């Protein structure tokens, strides 16, 4: 169960947001301090499974052939065969379009090097290099987890944003997601919460509500 201050901050952010014609995402914004993010070892990049899910569709693509492709057909949003991978590598416009529309990629382990060589320049900068999976494995469990996941990624900036749900979710559910992310972030920082300058909750177009 989320801490009461978190629930209250989320509730205020939801109440202060105007009704929109689309479902707004709820975001957590974190500002770090006293940490040198020019050093790669200090940066954070981690997929976190949200206990209450994202509250929205998360698109998953599987790169693989044979048995894996057959199993992925019914559970993934997109299946890219090794043959299609070669075609995609020669069409940067289409590759970027797919990279922008897909949240997570899974690739057959033996294809990881090929994916890196052919699509690394497109997927790498977006933080979307594939997660490896064994040939012929059932991708359903991994896909289920990724559909509930968000990527916490600082790059070299001290301010970063993470989606924690949508305005259609309850304040309690969103707060549960927020607390899980904050604990994971603190666990990565040398001084824990003392490396966090401030944190805010906001909807896509709504005002920010201070969390800490």
Which features characterize this protein?
Large ribosomal subunit protein uL1; single chain; Ribosomal_uL1/biogenesis; 2 domains; 212 residues; Ribosomal_uL1; 7 helices; globular; Rossmann fold; alpha/beta; four-stranded antiparallel beta sheet; Ribulose 1,5 Bisphosphate Carboxylase/Oxygenase
Explain what the structure shows.
InterPro entries: Ribosomal_uL1, Ribosomal_uL1-like, Ribosomal_uL1/biogenesis, Ribosomal_uL1_3-a/b-sand, Ribosomal_uL1_arc, Ribosomal_uL1_CS. Part of the 50S ribosomal subunit. Pfam families: Ribosomal_L1. With 212 residues, this protein is of the alpha/beta class. It has seven helices and ten strands. Strand 5, helix 5 and strand 6 form a beta-alpha-beta unit. Helix 1 (4-16) packs across helix 7 (171-188). It starts with a helix and ends with a strand. The mean pLDDT is 93.
What top-tier CATH class of the largest domain fits best?
A: Alpha Beta
Major sheet summary line: 4 strands, antiparallel
Are there runs of 5+ residues with pLDDT below 50, and where?
none
What's the number of domains? 2
Order of helices and strands: HEEEHEHHEHEHEEHEE
Q: Give the overall form.
A: globular
Structural class: alpha/beta
Quaternary structure classification: single chain
Radius of gyration, CA atoms, in whole angstroms = 19 Å
CATH topology of the largest domain: Ribulose 1,5 Bisphosphate Carboxylase/Oxygenase
| Strand segment tally | 10
- CATH 4th-level superfamily of the largest domain: Ribosomal protein L1/L10, rRNA-binding domain
Average pLDDT number: 93
- Level-2 CATH architecture of the largest domain: 2-Layer Sandwich
Task: Assess the beta-strand content as a share of residues.
Answer: 15-25%
């Amino acid at each position: 169960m989320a801490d009461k201050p978190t629930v209250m901050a989320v509730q205020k952010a939801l109440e202060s947001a105007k009704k929109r014609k689309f479902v707004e995402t709820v975001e957590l914004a974190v500002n770090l301090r006293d940490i040198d993010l020019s050093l790669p070892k200090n940066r954070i990049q981690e997929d976190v499974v949200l206990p209450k899910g994202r509250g929205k569709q998360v698109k998953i693509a599987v790169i693989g052939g044979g048995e894996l492709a057959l199993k992925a057909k019914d559970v993934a949003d997109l299946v890219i065969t090794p043959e299609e991978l070669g075609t995609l590598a020669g069409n940067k416009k289409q590759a970027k379009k797919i990279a922008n529309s897909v949240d997570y990629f899974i690739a057959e382990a033996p294809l990881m090097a090929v994916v890196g060589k052919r699509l690394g320049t497109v997927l790498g900068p977006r933080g979307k290099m594939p997660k490896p999976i064994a040939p012929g494995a059932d991708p359903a469990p991994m896909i289920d987890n990724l559909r509930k996941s968000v990527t916490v990624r600082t790059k070299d900036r001290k301010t970063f944003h993470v989606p924690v749900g949508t305005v259609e979710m309850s304040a309690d559910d969103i707060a549960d997601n927020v607390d899980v992310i904050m604990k994971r972030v603190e666990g990565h920082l040398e001084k824990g919460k003392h490396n966090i300058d401030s944190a805010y909750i906001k909807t896509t177009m709504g005002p920010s509500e201070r969390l800490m």
